[in-house]
User: Fold this.
Amino acid sequence: MNEGPNAGRVFGVVGWKNAGKTTLVERLVAEFVCRGWRVSTIKHGHHDLDIDQPGRDSWRHRAAGATEVAVVGGRRYAIMRESEPTLEEVLARLAPADLVLIEGYKRQPHRKIEIRAGGEPMVAGDPAIVAVASDDRPGDTALPWFRRDDVVAIAEDRKSTRLNSSHGYIS
Assistant:
């Protein structure tokens, strides 16, 4: 995987619906930002995404057939494209960051932590899962385990393994 300016800085959070993925990502972002890191996030969903609203100028541009529409305001912008980009394409568009946290994209080969709150474990079918976060220690894996709410310990683990990593992913 070639992530452009963010090579070696990618780490994912995966789990089944309502396992606490968004909460963990949110808390990890806050933890790393407090440490002075620049953090970007990518959220992958399985539903159609539309940040536009019918009748708005940008919506009208898209409805007329524009391939991409950039909406630019005073403090932020969004680029809408009428196709789903690959993870590599999204990573290439991001500005350089100390860490890119990815929520979802569970079938991609980047390193990730599985967050559990019931459901079938994912770790057995995914060699890129390098840790598990759950309320109770899992009996099905010897991977590092963290409590779902122990954001400081997860951040410390990610920091130490990133600094000692020699390959293209945070492991």
